[in-house]
Amino acid sequence: MQHRPQLAPGYLSSAYAESLAEFGRPRELAKCGGWILERKIPGTDLHDAMGCYPLFACREWKNLQEDCEALSREVVALSVVTDPFGNYDQSVLGNVFKDVVRPFKSHFVADLRQSRDSLVSKHHRYYARRALNNVVVEICKRPDEIFEDWMALYSCLAQRHHLKGMKAFSRASFAKQLRVPGITILRALENRTTIGAHLWFTHGDVALSHLAATNARGYELMASYALYWSALAYFAERVRWIDWGAGAGLDGNEADGLTEFKRGWANETRMTFFCGRIFDVSAYQRLCQNNPATRSGYFPAYRAGEFD
């Protein structure tokens, strides 16, 4: 009997990269096993590349240097935000990304060798148990069955937080994301009606929180507390780590509500890094001359303001 080759999961998957194809052409970095998006630079015949949102993950970080050497002949620059559980250190990143390596956001993580009661804050334990008096949480056996419910939930989230561009995601993107290998979906229900859901990807011994959303009723019943509490129980039997992600905004503001919420479920933090590499210096400098916002510290500087 022949065994089927195991498909790469989550952010390592070609399927996830394809879900972002409206923002760039997915390209595999064959040596390291990661994916990037090649993007046309407006007003030119040049291209640059970025890691897939929200994280660039790969199997072999030590091989990324070789992939970049091949890439250097085809794109002006590359930028990525690193997987906080990647097998690299800052010296590895510095060798590959010679122009920018800077701490970006701290992700809140939970070491599941610790019990739920000991790692979750007293505040969060109280509201999780309260929420579970009114909400049932289940694992979606067939992720495609929740598609329309998920679109309605995420529409509420996008409107509440004014999400645009890549963060808003399209129907076509989510149709592909719900088929990505390694996806797990927890659904919160009230009287068999979906009021919240949480999408997860699993990489080896880590479960990564991808996206979570509730509607107005889910918000009222604090369904997020029920979903997070249930995720801890579900993944405790399957992985060692949960990565809850970071706070909102470009700097993971320590004071925002999302940061405080995630902090209450975690017992450690892991840093992500923003990394950039210029391959074609002369082209990069020419492009910067055409963008008055290049002094903002954004990389690549000629794209400053692209997500405003």
Structural write-up:
This protein is α+β, with helices and mostly antiparallel strands and 308 residues long. The chain folds into two domains: 10-105 and 273-303, no CATH class; 108-271, Gcn5-related N-acetyltransferase (GNAT) (Aminopeptidase), CATH 3.40.630.30. 30% of the residues lie in helices and 27% in strands. It contains eleven helices and eleven strands. The chain has helices at residues 14-18, 64-71, 90-96, 116-119, 122-131, 147-161, 171-177, 216-220, 223-236, 257-263, 281-289, and strands spanning 25-29, 34-40, 47-51, 77-81, 100-111, 136-139, 183-190, 193-203, 206-214, 241-245, 268-278. An eleven-stranded mixed beta sheet has the order 1-2-3-4-11-5-10-9-8-7-6, with helices on both faces. Strand 7 (183-190) and strand 8 form a beta hairpin. The longest helix has 15 residues, at 147-161. The radius of gyration is 20 Å and the shape is globular. The termini are far apart.
